[in-house]
């Protein structure tokens, strides 16, 4: 979890902004909307202290960008434009690739940014304070926390297998050979962990019916509320503009 | 006053044909600590799960008979809101996962019960004080050591003031101070009228707090009575359950029942005078083998956190068995991780078998170095016990014949022949530890790194591990073991290091480190000192033999 503005904001604010960015990424009109929004999301992530998400999203989206470029830019039809390296590219295909790539990259960046700022404790306290059904709030937390748990499980398993002599570094062939010894146990361990989590939930009262107490609900100041209303307005206005056009 | 009772209780796990519990009828009174024990697989952990209503609700399986708490079937009620606290044998699995700090973790229970904030804060602070974990209040729960976590989980359960406590091996990872603290806390809980049931194989610890002893054998109640009477008798030995170390030694020395339960009584019985306490640290026997592990001015901290190790220096040679002692959180597990190249020092050097670990990885050290994690679940992935043991030798490139021979030998040595084809997760938690150990031993590593190898094991298994260690050492292997088990340390380890605040405070012969480090001395060591037996000739068999020769025939 980061310690920047995104982490200090009310959890619902961070969630609202991330959700709004995802919706806007789908709705903003091409050709300029998607790249501009993607740039805005990147700037927002950096300014609010979750800049790590930008780099992670770039890495995640890189294969997609490449695929879009090959499928639509190189192999696309229609009028051709000169490529910097001497060949030609499809003009409409490149525009489509940039549009779709930007939309997806914005979605991934916004999601990873939210995940980086997400604090299960603060989110749950906020949800309890707002009288959300506890099961729903816990479901959100468990879902968003699943990747972290999965990652921890993978680290433990990797360590244990390496102490037995499993080689996970080196050539591509070596790494490929290690995959079954890591992936299958990881899946099994994750299933076992699910059982064990059930024990924790039951014995710690997390499945018990009834009202919970919000111990230290995060402050929900005027600025948080202004941001949430603003992003809601942005989404509604964009939707109205797209429908009205 | 809350009462717990079971009547004709039978339980079997899914896909199992035999009943793990077979006709258990018991009534647990408030204000009493009931101690459940038995040989591995006797059903004590299963009985606790059934009493908490978690078996079969969460485990699956089939239950007949009844378990009633305050007249209600436990299978139909949620534990915590109904005053039932259950602590499993692996506390790390019971963390809520939603707390940022220990203080928040402890407040989770009362929060889920909807208590007012002021009451929650007061209850959490009180629970932390009673379990002695106030100093951990602002730590991240998942970063605690095993012993710290065990006490934090107890505090988390204590915060809701339950009337029924079901605890599975609550002392397994605790240091001496933690053990004493939890024992004192248990007495307070019982004095407040709670019902306490503890499954535990640590007879010396439990003998000091238990009011009643129930011994299970093959899922049935074999013995039920006053601990001091049962522990001193012959019947408990027949069940395979552990009795106190003094009584075990007395039995080996052929002293007839009723046997002394404590070291002082054993010495008196054998006509021996307790040695005067001494703080002198004696040098460990000199090993002349090659240096297999060397640490030079090793410093370490996790991710910019506070220092965990500060200037550790040590050498471990072939033919040495070294114990790592120290309070919970002293840096013992971290030191072992550095020796396996799972982490690297922030300053200084760790050299294993002549190779600097910096720039190397665990797989570069395996299979010459074997590592047993504190939680065996971390290293069990295969579909059967045998398959688990095969992994290491296969990765080492051994031939099929050599693998088969080595695996058969190690399964026999660790006592797992009878479950070789079972799934590791179908075995009780303590036995999984033996599986993990067997898997490590299968490649016959030159340097064995063991993190709490005897925690939560029964007496027979602890003795077996001591034999395993002695055999390896006799063959010129080296062993480094983290342990809080003084009797095991005395039996298996020649040399001990005491870590304090990330540095080695004491280094010497195990017997003198146990004395100087403030450990309660095991009965075998006390008797050996009283008999004047020198180091190396002070193991249980030799001491028992010396005592038996003093007995009138």
Describe the secondary structure blueprint for this structure:
The complex is a heterodimer of chains A (245) and B (553).
Chain A: H1 5-8, H2 11-27, H3 33-47, H4 52-74, E1 80-82, E2 88-90, H5 91-117, H6 120-129, H7 134-163, H8 172-203, H9 222-244
Helix pairs in contact in A: 2-3, 2-5, 2-9, 3-5, 4-5, 6-7, 7-8
Chain B: E1 4-12, E2 21-28, E3 33-38, H1 44-51, E4 62-69, E5 72-73, E6 84-87, H2 102-112, H3 117-131, H4 146-158, E7 164-168, H5 176-191, E8 195-199, H6 203-206, E9 212-217, E10 220-225, H7 227-232, H8 235-239, H9 245-252, H10 263-269, E11 291-301, E12 307-317, E13 321-326, H11 332-339, E14 347-352, E15 355-356, H12 362-365, E16 369-372, H13 385-395, H14 400-414, H15 429-441, E17 447-451, H16 459-474, E18 478-482, H17 486-492, E19 495-500, E20 503-509, H18 510-516, H19 523-531, H20 540-550
Parallel strand pairs in B: 3-8, 3-9, 6-7, 7-8, 13-18, 13-19, 16-17, 17-18
Antiparallel strand pairs in B: 1-2, 1-4, 4-5, 9-10, 11-12, 11-14, 14-15, 19-20
Helix pairs in contact in B: 2-3, 2-4, 3-4, 9-20, 10-19, 13-14, 13-15, 14-15, 16-17, 19-20
**Largest beta-sheet details of chain A:** 2 strands, antiparallel
Largest chain interface and its two residue counts? Answer: A-B, 49 and 60 residues
Unreliable stretches of chain A (pLDDT < 50, length at least 5) are none
Major sheet characteristics of chain B = 6 strands, mixed
Strand content of chain A: under 5%
Question: How much helicity do the residues of chain A have?
Answer: over 70%
- Spatial separation of the terminal alpha carbons of chain B: 52 Å
User: Which range best describes the helical content of chain B: under 10%, 10-25%, 25-40%, 40-55%, 55-70% or over 70%?
Assistant: 25-40%
Spatial sequence of strands, sheet with the most strands of chain B: 6-7-8-3-9-10
Radius of gyration of chain B: 23 Å
Oligomer: heterodimer
Tell me the number of helical segments of chain B per DSSP (H or I, 4 or more residues long).
20
Radius of gyration of chain A: 22 Å
**Net shape of chain A:** flat
Mean pLDDT of chain A: 88
Note the total helix count of chain A: 9
What is the arithmetic mean of pLDDT of chain B? Answer: 92
Q: Tell me how many strands of chain B there are.
A: 20
Query: Order of SSEs of chain A, N→C?
Result: HHHHEEHHHHH
């Amino acid at each position: 979890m980061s310690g920047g503005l995104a982490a200090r904001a009310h959890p619902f604010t961070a969630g609202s902004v991330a959700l709004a960015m995802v919706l806007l990424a789908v709705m903003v009109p091409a050709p300029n909307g998607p790249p501009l929004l993607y740039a805005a999301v990147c700037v927002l992530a950096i300014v609010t202290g979750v800049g790590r998400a930008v780099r992670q999203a770039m890495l995640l989206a890189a294969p997609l960008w490449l695929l879009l470029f090959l499928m639509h830019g190189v192999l696309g039809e229609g009028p051709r434009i000169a490529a910097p390296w001497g060949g030609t590219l499809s003009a409409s295909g490149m525009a489509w690739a940039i549009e779709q790539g930007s939309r997806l990259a914005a979605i991934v960046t916004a999601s990873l940014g939210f995940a980086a700022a997400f604090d299960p404790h603060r989110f749950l306290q906020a949800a309890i304070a707002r009288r959300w059904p506890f099961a729903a709030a816990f479901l959100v937390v468990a879902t968003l926390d699943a990747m972290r748990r999965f990652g921890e499980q993978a680290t433990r398993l990797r360590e244990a297998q390496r102490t037995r002599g499993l080689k996970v570094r080196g050539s591509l062939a070596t790494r490929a050979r290690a995959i079954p010894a890591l992936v299958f146990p990881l899946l099994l361990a994750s299933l076992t962990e699910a059982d064990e989590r059930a024990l924790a939930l039951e014995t710690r009262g997390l499945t018990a019916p009834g009202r919970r107490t919000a111990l230290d609900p995060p402050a929900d100041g005027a600025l948080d509320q202004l941001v949430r209303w603003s992003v809601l307005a942005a989404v509604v206005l964009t939707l109205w503009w797209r429908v009205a056009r | 006053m809350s009462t717990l009772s079971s009547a004709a209780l039978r339980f079997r796990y899914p896909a199992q044909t035999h009943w793990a519990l077979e006709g258990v009828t018991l009534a647990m009174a408030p204000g009493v600590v009931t101690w459940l024990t038995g040989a591995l697989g006797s059903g004590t952990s299963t009985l606790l799960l059934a009493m908490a209503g978690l078996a079969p609700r969460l485990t699956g399986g089939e239950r007949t008979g009844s378990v009633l708490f305050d007249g209600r079937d436990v299978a139909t009620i949620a534990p915590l809101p109904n005053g039932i606290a259950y602590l499993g044998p692996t506390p790390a699995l019971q963390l809520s996962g939603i707390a940022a700090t220990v203080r928040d973790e402890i407040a989770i229970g009362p929060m889920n019960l909807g208590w007012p904030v002021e009451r929650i804060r007061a209850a959490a602070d009180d629970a932390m004080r009673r379990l002695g974990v106030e100093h951990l209040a602002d730590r991240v729960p998942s970063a605690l050591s095993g012993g710290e976590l065990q006490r934090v989980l107890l505090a988390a359960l204590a915060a809701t003031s339950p009337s029924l406590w079901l605890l599975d091996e609550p002392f397994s990872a605790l240091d001496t101070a933690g053990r004493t603290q939890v024992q004192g806390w248990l007495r307070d809980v019982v004095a407040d009228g709670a019902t306490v049931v503890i499954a535990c194989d640590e007879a010396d610890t439990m003998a000091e707090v238990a009011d009643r002893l129930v011994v299970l054998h093959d899922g049935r109640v074999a013995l039920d009575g006053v601990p001091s009477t049962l522990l001193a008798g012959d019947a408990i030995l027949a069940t395979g359950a552990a009795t106190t170390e003094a009584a075990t030694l007395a039995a080996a020395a052929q002293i007839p029942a009723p046997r002394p339960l404590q070291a002082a009584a054993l010495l008196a019985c054998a006509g021996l005078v307790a040695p005067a306490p001494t703080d002198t640290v004696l040098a460990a026997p000199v090993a002349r083998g090659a240096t297999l592990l060397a640490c030079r001015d090793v410093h370490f901290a996790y991710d910019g956190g506070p220092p965990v190790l500060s200037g550790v220096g040590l050498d471990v040679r072939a033919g040495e068995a070294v114990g790592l002692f120290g309070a919970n959180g002293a840096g013992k597990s971290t030191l072992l991780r550095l020796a396996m190249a799972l982490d690297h020092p922030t300053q200084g050097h760790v050299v294993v078998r002549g190779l600097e670990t910096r720039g190397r990885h665990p797989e570069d050290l395996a299979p010459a170095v074997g590592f047993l994690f504190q939680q065996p679940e971390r290293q069990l992935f295969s579909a059967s016990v045998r398959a688990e043991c095969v992994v290491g030798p296969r990765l080492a490139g051994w031939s099929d014949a050599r693998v088969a021979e080595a695996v058969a030998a190690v399964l026999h040595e660790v006592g797992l022949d009878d479950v070789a084809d079972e799934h590791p997760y179908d075995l009780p938690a303590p036995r999984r530890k033996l599986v993990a150990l067997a898997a490590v031993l299968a490649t016959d590593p030159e340097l064995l790194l063991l993190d709490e190898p005897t925690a939560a094991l029964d007496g027979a298994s602890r003795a077996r591990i001591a034999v395993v260690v002695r055999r390896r050492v006799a063959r010129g292997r080296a062993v480094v073991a983290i342990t809080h088990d003084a009797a095991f340390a005395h039996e298996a380890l020649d040399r001990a290091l005491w870590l304090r605040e990330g540095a080695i405070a004491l280094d010497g012969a195990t017997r003198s480190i146990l004395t100087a480090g403030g450990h309660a001395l095991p009965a075998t060591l006390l008797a050996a000192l009283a008999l004047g037996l020198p180091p190396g000739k002070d193991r249980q068999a030799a001491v028992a033999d010396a005592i038996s020769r003093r007995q009138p025939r």
